[in-house]
Amino acid sequence: MPDLVCLGEALLEFSSQQRDGQTFYLQGYGGDTSNCAIAAARQGASVGYVTAVGDDAFGREFLDLWKREGVETGGVIVDPDAPTGIYFITYANGEHEFSYRRVGSAASRMTPQSVPLDIVRQAKILHVSGISQAISDTACDAVFAAMTAARQAGVQVSYDTNLRLKLWPIERARAVIHAGMAMADIALPGLEDARQLTGLEDPDAIVDFYLALGPKVVALTMGSAGTMVATSDLRETVPVHKVDHVDATAAGDMFDGAFLARLMAGDDVVTAVTYANTAAALSTLGYGAVAPMPTAEAVRKALAEKAT
Ligand SMILES: Nc1ncnc2c1ncn2[C@@H]1O[C@H](COP(=O)(O)OP(=O)(O)O)[C@@H](O)[C@H]1O
Ligand SMILES: O=C(O)C(=O)C[C@H](O)[C@H](O)COP(=O)(O)O
């Protein structure tokens, strides 16, 4: 049984590329919790994914991908009556934008009854996100059921805000994400998400807010400003690993996967954040979510180069 279980939706990815005055779409793989699972597996962690995919070519591609990446798929349902979701990435002024085709997808049809709670109960960490809860009411309930089962079994819960206002209104997002965060041991908010969710501007105030909800560790990712990590008796801002980034899609998911992998391997939180910042920076050097994610070897090499 895997140590890290991620729960959510995988999306086939089409990333817009301009060449010779024409637009092409580079096919890749996305979906925040699938990204996190692959990111952690590339760091050597024992990982499984819980989701549903369609009985279609894209669902089969994901099953092949997870197999290649060493992500266990015992918790993946193949739904004959619904498709695998897809999304497009377009770029403007150095920013990326996501456009989804996922309403009615197989993953959005997950329910509390369909989630394999036995896999969750035997993990060390369950990782979920705001997106896992935004895709449908039944998926939202499925995530709450998985978090409840994890807590009852002594499994740590990790929660990334990943606020996507194309999927739900801010009022509902705030209520659900903060209910989820209150069930989490490890809180992984992004700064812009947290500003919208809490109404607070200052990173220290945001970290205080999330610690007060209950998590024992808060890692607030702040893009190029690095990561503020805090527990009840420590607070530190770890700077980014400087790179000439190309596309920051899934930098947050890479951070999550690497951070959780290193915590499970026994690192202290600051060492784990230093590693995860480097892994996340390296993942911005190519287009799309999964393809540019570094292996543990590449992260170690970059950390060693910085140290000399
Ligand atoms: N331009 C960048 N250069 C180097 N590292 C980056 C850059 N953007 C993001 N990162 C790394 O990725 C992590 C997550 O990025 P962030 O943008 O905060 O997450 P999210 O994608 O969830 O919004 C950051 O904490 C940082 O370590
Ligand atoms: O938006 C969604 O629903 C997706 O899952 C598509 C993307 O793969 C992730 O959103 C990337 O997540 P970040 O690490 O925050 O950049």
TrEMBL record:
The keyword Transferase applies. SUPFAM superfamilies: Ribokinase-like. InterPro entries: PfkB_Carbo_kinase (IPR050306), PfkB_dom (IPR011611), Ribokinase-like (IPR029056). The keyword Zinc-finger does not apply. GO terms for cellular component: cytosol. It comes from the Bacteria. Its EC number is 2.7.1.45. It holds the Pfam family PfkB. It is an enzyme of class 2 (transferase). Residues 1-295 form the Carbohydrate kinase PfkB domain. Keywords: Kinase, Transferase. One of its GO terms (biological process) is D-galacturonate catabolic process. One of its GO terms (molecular function) is 2-dehydro-3-deoxygluconokinase activity. Belongs to the carbohydrate kinase PfkB family. This is 2-dehydro-3-deoxygluconokinase.
